[in-house]
Specification:
Blueprint: H1 2-33, H2 35-53, H3 57-71, H4 75-98, H5 100-110, H6 115-128, H7 132-147, H8 152-175, H9 180-208, H10 217-222, H11 224-256, H12 260-297, H13 300-337, H14 340-372, H15 376-401, H16 403-433
Helix pairs in contact: 1-2, 1-8, 1-12, 2-6, 3-4, 3-7, 3-11, 3-12, 4-7, 6-9, 7-9, 8-9, 11-15, 12-13, 12-14, 13-14, 14-16, 15-16
């Protein structure tokens, strides 16, 4: 079981840590263009990342269902699962392209972007929006590859995308003296190359298991009951994602009320938590892929063994990160903070970040396990209760405790999210394994 978990977790962790690398280089390129361009690219990237995160159910839902068909050795059905997911991805991306103007107008209004920056953000957006079909298809393809127990191919796709994005953007901005369009073209090209590469890998995996991907169109559209199950799984994931986005958006918005130094200090501490999430997500992906496979096999005993082993690894990672932040937190804050007041703020709230890895590990791992078992309703219940607690606690404590209220609410949110899912585990096991 250890080998099965690490086979998925380690490539997934490596995939996750390529994300900040791209962000650092992207910031460097944008900074070369000037403050206006840096701010515009930052706003535009946030708008895209928020929009696309709402469709991450394509990766999760596809991965869980594909893993179950893999475990049941229903390989022909695995190909149909990918077909359905790609149909949904392309249909949604068409909707995004048709509604691109209302989307950008709403985003600019929510983020209070005006003047010269507004023009730059719109320019960036109207270039990069044409990557929507590639990005949504990539969600489906990466989810399917993970469900087919292959985390190496998504890792190769991510690394290729990042290197290509960096290389093309550097060439266009520094070599050809292009402005914001150079950065956008670099990202757009990388998105389409990534999608094509992922599709190539999917075809290779399909051939290995005797799946005829492009000759099952009639099965993709014919089975209405399968479509209903697929939509049910994904609707719960979508609603769960809305709750997550609401909490994270509100975390930033509530922090803004305390002033710029608090916002900056909170941002530094969230980066530390984000680093933890890259590793815990890797093991969540292992729970998703291996758990889905075992669910397809119908082996409840093996699933319980997976839960124990997964929490052993997750607990070790969480404790190591908490210890690491306890020992080096002050030093890291000093390096990232620069400004003395920002450093002082970050140090004040550092104890929360030291506790967060241990507090949040249950939520991360159960997310993966429940995606693998397609118990997505239980995921939604957990995050809905937790989000309600976040807003309730902040409302009750904010006037008396300021930014402490925000961190207390966030910590409680992560703890309750995992706790509610843990309480639902016996019911999930009964439904899935009898």
């Amino acid at each position: 079981m250890h080998r099965k978990i690490l086979h998925i977790a380690l490539p997934s962790i490596f995939t996750n840590i390529t994300v900040p690398l791209l962000g650092i280089v992207g910031t460097y390129i944008a900074a070369h263009l000037g403050a206006y361009y840096l701010a515009a690219i930052s706003v535009g990237s946030t708008l895209f990342s928020t929009t696309y995160s709402l469709f991450n159910f394509l990766r999760m839902g596809t991965g869980g269902v594909a893993a179950q068909t893999f475990g049941a050795e229903q390989f022909s059905e695995s190909g149909v699962v990918l077909g359905r997911s790609l149909v949904i991805a392309l249909s949604l991306s068409l909707g995004i392209l048709l509604l691109q103007q209302p989307i950008i107008e709403l985003g600019l209004w929510l983020m209070s972007v005006e003047g010269a920056q507004r023009v730059l953000v719109m320019d960036y957006f109207h270039w990069l929006i044409w990557g929507a079909p590639a990005m949504l298809s990539l969600f489906a393809l990466n989810g399917w590859l993970l469900g087919m127990q292959n985390a190496v191919y998504p890792m190769v796709v991510a690394v290729t995308q990042n290197l290509l994005n960096i290389g093309i953007s550097l060439f266009l901005v520094y070599g050809l003296q292009m402005k914001i369009e150079g950065v956008a073209i670099g990202a757009l090209t990388a998105q389409w190359v990534g999608a094509i590469l992922a599709l190539t890998f999917a075809v290779r995996v399909a051939r290995k298991h005797g799946i005829a991907l492009f000759s099952q169109g009639h099965r993709v559209f014919r089975d209405l009951a399968a479509w209903k199950r697929f939509f049910t799984v994904n609707v719960f994931i979508f609603l769960r994602t809305l709750c997550l986005v609401a909490v994270m958006f509100s975390f930033t918005a509530f922090g803004n009320r305390s002033g710029n130094y608090v916002v900056a200090g909170n941002a530094i501490l969230l980066q530390l938590f984000l680093l933890t999430s890259y590793f815990l997500d890797g093991f969540a992906y292992a729970g998703e892929a291996v758990g889905g496979r075992i669910t397809g096999q119908g082996d409840g005993v093996d699933f319980r063994r997976l839960v124990r082993t997964l929490f052993l690894w997750g607990g070790i990672i969480a404790l190591l990160f908490s210890a690491f932040f306890f020992v080096t937190g002050d030093f890291i804050v000093e390096q990232l903070g620069q400004d003395a007041q920002v450093i002082a703020v970050a140090r004040t709230y550092l104890p929360y970040v030291i506790a967060l890895p241990v507090v949040s590990v249950t939520a991360f791992l159960f997310d993966g396990l429940y995606i693998g078992t397609t118990a997505t309703r239980s995921m939604l219940v957990g995050v809905a209760y937790a989000a309600a607690l976040f807003f309730l606690l902040h409302q009750m404590l904010a006037s008396a405790m300021g930014n402490h209220a925000l961190w207390i609410a966030f910590t409680a949110y992560l703890a309750l999210r995992g706790g509610v899912m843990a309480l639902q585990l016996p019911g999930v096991l009964r439904r899935k394994f009898g």
